[in-house]
Amino acid sequence: MLELWSSGPVALMLNTLIALSSYLFGSFGLTIVVLTIIIRGAMYPLTVKQLRATRAMQALQPKIAELQKKYAKDKQRLAQEQMKLYKESGVSPAGCAVPMLIQMPIWIALFQSIIRVLAVTPEDLLGLSRHLWSWPVVYSMLPLDNNFLWFNLVSPDLPLAILVGATMWLTQKMVTPTTTDPQQRSQSQLMLWMMPLMFGFIAMSVPSGLALYWAASNVISIVIQYFVLGGWGGLARAGAGKYVVPSSKDIKVRVAEAETAPSISAMEADIVDTGSTEEEESGYGGAGDKRQLGGGGYPASLREFKSRSRRSKGHRPKRR
Amino acid sequence: MWIKHNRRLLAKVLLLLVILVIGGVTVSGCYGRSQPRGWSGAVIADDTLFLASVEGRLVGLNKSDGSRLWPVDSTLGISESGTAIYGTPAVAEDLVYVGGYNGRVYAVTFSTGALRWVYPREGNLEPIVGGVVVSQGMVYFGCSDGKVYALDAITGDRVWQSFETGDKIWSTPVIDGDTLYISSFDKKLYALDANTGSEKWVFAEAKGAIASTPLVYENTVYIGSFDRYLYAVDTTNGSLRWRSEVEVDKWFWAKPVVYNNVIYAPNLDGKVYILDANSGREVAGAVELDSPSPISSDPVVVDGKVIIASQEGKIYSLDTSNNQVGLLRNVGDDGQEIYAPLCASDGAVYIHAQSSKQDTLYALNAQTGVEVWRPVSLSSK
Description:
The complex is a heterodimer of chains A (320) and B (381).
Chain A (H helix, E strand, L loop, with lengths): L1 H20 L6 H15 L1 H16 L1 H10 L4 H15 L4 H24 L4 H8 L6 H6 L5 E2 L2 E2 L5 H18 L6 H22 L4 H22 L4 H4 L10 H13 L5 H5 L6 H5 L18 H14 L7
Helix pairs in contact in A: 1-2, 1-6, 2-11, 3-6, 3-11, 4-5, 9-10, 9-11
Chain B lengths: L1 H4 L1 H24 L12 E3 L2 E5 L5 E5 L27 E3 L2 E5 L5 E5 L5 E5 L13 E3 L2 E5 L4 E6 L5 E7 L9 E3 L2 E5 L5 E5 L5 E5 L11 E3 L2 E5 L5 E5 L5 E4 L13 E3 L2 E5 L4 E6 L5 E7 L11 E3 L2 E5 L4 E6 L4 E7 L12 E3 L2 E7 L4 E7 L5 E7 L4
């Protein structure tokens, strides 16, 4: 199985990397960046799908929080209500995970290919020769030039490790949801700092070629998220105001208002704001946009997506 | 009091640290780069055999029975962890020389194993992968910094300013008369004046890096390249005599051997190519081993037989009279592999085989494959 993996996806990626470098002045650093862009571009539809599904899930969080409070003592009922909510909203929890799972093997193959092509020791170089295809360009290109910009691709580099951490923080920050639940907010904050710290830490102990791949991938993620989310997302909200944790009473009142408002569609009620001053000032439709009362927590782009989603399923959610 | 109030914060910090450590260890451990281990071949001088173990120790053995020459293998003055040694040691007068992957060259006293000198005395160069050669009181070696160094064999002082090539040097220099031949990853073969380090000529027609050590024979240098061609270069002016026409699948890594004007060139595709030394034309079809495994170990010629070792631990004998190949011995059953150059003397062939658990030197009769003496463990444990 492992051999099949090595001789299949990894070998394909590895030989493509080497062949591509022949068109990029033999610079392996440039090759890593370009191949990362190509692969991210090829998987753009999946990334968009995943991002939109994630946003839709995040937008449902206030309603889910309310359900959790309402059915705190009845787990079975809670599960049923949650499923019902997902169904009515046309949101699938798997919608976030499936595109990501499809992309995972490609990332792993790219990751392993970079490691192998960066053969440093004689053992590594001999091992690499086993995975090469009979393309003349592949044979004549090796070993590749390991110097790129200010660093050597085979050695760890502190500034690059910092860049990895910083770009990952920006990526995370853009998609970190605004939440009124202190527990969820705490988890979001933990994730926001944990991933950048972990990858920055790892980048200081692995070849810079891998760190370059992570940094390039993060920058591409930022660009994609900017266009898909229609703005800087969480980054724009960052300085928008002090976070106020609403009381449970406040949540109930606001949810009740949203549920009873006749002019609001069920879908919009599902994602009504729960009172965060922070969210009111930003929203995903664009930094600083004031939301319309009853206009829903979705940004324009997401509302459009949700509408399309429901239309495509050929039903309208029930009014409550 | 503070702890009581900040218990939640502490728990988060602790969780973060645990995740950092686990994540770091997991990714670092899984990213697959191998540690340099070395694959030193053996050299024989005065009925004594020298080679470096995988632990990075210099080992001296009596050629007659394989017993240790010194009570304790030479640690080369390096701490317990040692360094990887890929190059075959060289012997001259009363000193044994070896280069390490730690970027230092060591001279050890033949009789005692005591360290005589180290170059450089302070700091280190880039990794040294090729072997060192000694000629007329000078020690020569190539380095991963792309330079060729010449040292005084007695003192370890540098004799001439290092000659710089365009990329890493992993091959062993070859001295022929007063000319030093060395190949580089910059796809070139260099001929230097061994006394001054000045360039005589450069052969730059190869399209791939060159890791193999040149073979000098009858005013011709034979060299294999990563571009999958074998080149014959005129020693007088560096002009191309011929380039092999045969199609091969992988890199030429091992140094070829010559016998009766025929070149035997092993390849990483697991075949041995048999070419006429004058024309480069195939004398016979490529010899395929019974189970294809890369050949990276330099072969040797013993009494008309070319002894070849494949990476998977099989040793073959190729009869030059009819180009038939037969299995001489398999030492790979217990996971041992062969990367180190072979060494031959008085009808015996010496093979350094290694695995993650074993580090063994075999002495076999080149005709029969029978052990001349029992395999010797090179490990100090």
